Structures are given as C-alpha cells and as structure tokens.
Amino acid sequence: MRYPLLKNAVHSIALLSVTLAGGAHALDIQVLALTSDKAVLAIGGGKPRTMKVGQISPDGVKLISADTRAAVIEFAGKRQTLVMGESLSLAQPAGSGSTTLYADSGGHFFATATVNGSSTIRFLVDTGASMVSLGNGEAKRAGLDYTKGERVVLMTANGATTAYKIKLNSVKVGGITLTNVDALVAEGDGLNMGLLGMSFLNRLEMKRDGDTMTLTRRY
Length: 219
Description:
By secondary structure, this protein is mainly beta.
C-alpha cells in the first residue's frame, strides 16, 4: 500500500497501540512519514493525515514535536516518543465516566462511539439534534434492524426523509457508557453524517474550554 509522502520527508514507520483500560476501546496510531515539524499519521484505521506540531486530531491525539528521526505524541495526558519500529501502549483510567474531545480545525467536535458493544461509528457532537442520528448505511453496517422501529418523517437540509426511531442498547464514548439511548436512522441521503445528539448528551455534563470539551456522566 502506498501513502502520500511529505516533500523532502525522511520516512519512518512506527506503531503506537493505545489501549484504553477496561478493554473497551483501542486506538491504533501509525506514523507513516516524518519531517521537520510535521508527521503523517493514520489514526484508528482512518486515512493518513498530515499533522503539524501543536495540531490535535479529532481523536485527541496531539503532535507535540517532530523531526526526521522521531515524533512526540500526546494522548490522554501522556507523552511518548516514537522512533522507527517502536510499539507502545498508553492506558486511560477505566470507569472514569468522562472523556475529553478536541475540536478540529473548523471548531467542530467529533466522537468515535462504540454502539451496542461492537460497532464503531464516528459522530459529530450536535446539541441541536434531539437524538443520536445516523444514516441507514451506517445502521446496516452496525447490524441494526432499524425498520422495526417507529416510522417518522425527518426534516433535513435536503428536505423531508423517512426515518425510524429505535433504541440503542448501549453507546460508549471514551470512559462513558450509556444504555437505552434513543436514536433515529434516516433513509436515503437525508443524513450524510452521524450526529451525537441530546438523547446521549443530556445525560452528561458538558464543559468547554477553548478547543477542548469534557463530557462527564451525570446519571
């Protein structure tokens, strides 16, 4: 497999396996290329992204420093230096009931959630959405039999679309796990991005400080 390379970059490959204690979530980080003040990272199995020193990924991975030999990465408040071929494991306290999200360059907050204990789905944190919402494609990949839910009409930016109201057995974001979460699944192209709405967020305390948002379970 070929990855895009930084101009004049000296390439190095390293793997950082970040395991959050409790066995619920593991985040893989690959350093694919290094140059002065930049690194190409593949995070959580996603597409490679070029990060500058000081930049924070939506997953909360921050690039502290980088040169042609190594990169210093911070995750969950811990820093590690990655060199060629090194494999590390960083842990976050289990059962904390909280998690911290980091804004992307556009100021939006995203969260990777584990739905029903197995399927991983990426959501935009949206306090304007009354419920956790996702498209039918994501729902099918998650194995959700959503057509047995209550049929409703959902108004989107693309107009009215058919949706189904269902219950998710569990939704886990970082150290927070909530059960019996109301959700909407939209048919067609009515919803092109998963939304982490108020059926999840209203059970949390939300504190924002600049580019960080801390979610803490209330009940």
